[in-house]
Amino acid sequence: MADERVEEAALTDGFNLVIDALKLNDINTIYNVPGIPITDLGRYMQAAGMRVLSFRHEQNAGYAAAIAGFLTKKPGICLTVSAPGFLNGLTALAHATTNCFPMILISGSSERKIVDLQQGDYEEMDQLAIAKPLCKAAYRVLHAEDIGIGIARAIRAAVSGRPGGVYLDLPAKVFAQVMDAEAGARSLVKVIDAAPRQLPAPESVKRALDVLKGAERPLIILGKGAAYAQADDAIRAFVEASGIPYLPMSMAKGLLPDTHPQSAGAARSLALKQSDVVMLIGARLNWLLSHGKGKAWGDAPKKFIQIDIEPKEMDSNVEIVAPIVGDIGSCVQALLDAMGKDWAAPPPAWTGAIREKVEANVARMAPRLRNNNVPMDYQGALGALRTIIKERPDAILVNEGANTLDFARSIIDMYQPRKRLDVGTWGVMGVGMGMAIAAAVETGKPVLAIEGDSAFGFSGMEIETICRYGLPVCVVVFNNGGIYQGTGVNPSGGSDVSTTVFVKDARYEKMIEAFGGVGVYATSPDELSQAVNAAMDSGRPTLVNAVIDEAAGTESGRIGNLNPQRVVAKK
To answer: How far apart are CA 45 and CA 64, in angstroms?
Structure first.
């Protein structure tokens, strides 16, 4: 490649090789925060036709890259500067690994000879050693001729098997290294079949079906791994052919519409407690499912079937009587092919009980979701947004917070796969704006980001990024003046407000107006509905400050049991 960076037409350099290696592997979007030593790399990427989106904080760029990986099944790329920038991106890298999102964090770094002797280089840090425990794989490239193979290894590691985060360390000096252009072209690697199918053992498929056939009260749980697999047709066909009720985890909502007659979403407690055989498809028995035991699962004996690409996941919390190891698409298709024409649906007493509970709970909640209270409660506000998503099923919903997240999960129905993006396995705050930006960029669809006021505070400055790129993102901040509630009191009686209380009557909508976006102040569900519909119609960056009753929330949403109990000493 002839370029102003290399005077001789027969030469190339590290900048060119990084760009050419990524483009060769069909990676053309970068999420980054510019700075020494990667500022020029971002400029050259833009000049080469790549899309480079610059954020205000590396953590948010990393969350964007992580969810880009989930949506596309290609590793999202986050590019950061060394040391502090790298550390900011590291949270998102660990988040990607924990949630099984393919992502590559590429960071510039100090020179090895200075770092290893701890001689005090600019932003000196042994980044490779720090990254290793928090990702699937970590590599360092020291010579320009190894850039191609380094990027290829990072791509394959990120997407193969169980996907996750990968770190790629590029010392500043590598970018400026010069080599023969023809040799440089030969050093590039196009990754072939990065995530090959992993077929399940036929005996494991038969074993699982035999267990299901013996069930009186079977249940299927769909996890975000099932959504990531993009095996939507096979999963739907299997669920419907089986006749088994299914429970979607939050990011699996929409694989089948939440209004599907087999959906047990509105009867979650009954389904978990009374089921006797549970099939996990791309779901893990972690804290989100109470580790497969305890009160949430009731007293009925359980047999578990699990489909996962990672053999080590089996028996992680409870015995898995029928493990099926392989990629989800191949496993589900194998189950579907082996079911046979003699397959019998679950007993009507079970499916009828689930359906009856779903209908009763939906009917009980309906009036609360239609209220037009001022100030708003969560049910009225989310009821209005629920209708908007129903009318716009192609829109992408991003959701984070405590009460804002917990209530939205159960209230807002989804109708298409990979349209609901949220905090995932860690329950981490601050993913919202990064995810919203990547969702808009990667899909071209309108995005509705429903944020608790606390969650929004972690990444709120990225609304400038949304405005800068003119993205069709509508942010709704549920403003109840605090964490959980705005009614906390300082127990000491001092002048400082409670640790969970924010500024009263905060005008969040003024923030986006400062950057040229549309700000709206909404105090009722009707006003909220009008504002969000207008934003989704216009495609303009919008922030709606939705004023929620400060007493409407609850401590820690619905997971207050995770707070340790303090023992008060007797005096």
So the answer is: 18
Q: Tell which residue, 38, 50, 342, 295, has the closest CA to residue 168.
A: 38
Can you tell me the mean pLDDT for 435-443? Answer: 98
Residues 351 and 374 occupy one common structural domain: no
Q: Are 450 and 478 in contact (CB under 8 A)?
A: yes
pTM value is 0.95
CATH number at residue 182: 3.40.50.970
Q: Are residues 139 and 46 in the same domain?
A: yes
User: Residue 319: inside a domain, yes or no?
Assistant: yes
Q: How many Cα atoms sit within 13 Å of 374 on the Cβ side?
A: 7
How is residue 476 written in tokens? 């709704």
Strand ordering across the sheet containing 322-325: 246-248, 218-222, 277-281, 303-308, 322-325
Do 376 and 294 share a structural domain?
no
Domain count, the chain: 3
Q: Are the C-beta atoms of 464 and 533 separated by less than 8 Å?
A: no
What is the rounded average pLDDT for all residues in the chain?
Answer: 95
Residue type, 491: P
pLDDT at 1: 47
Q: Which residues of 544-571 are buried (b: 16+ CB within 10 A; e: fewer)?
A: bbbbbbbebbeeebeeeeeeeeeeeeee
- Given the structure tokens 């804002």, which residue do they identify? 404
Question: What pLDDT does 6 receive?
Answer: 54
* 193-218 pLDDT per residue, tens: 999 999 999 999 999 999 999 999 99
- Structural domain of 175: 11-187
Distance CA 275, CA 421 (A): 28
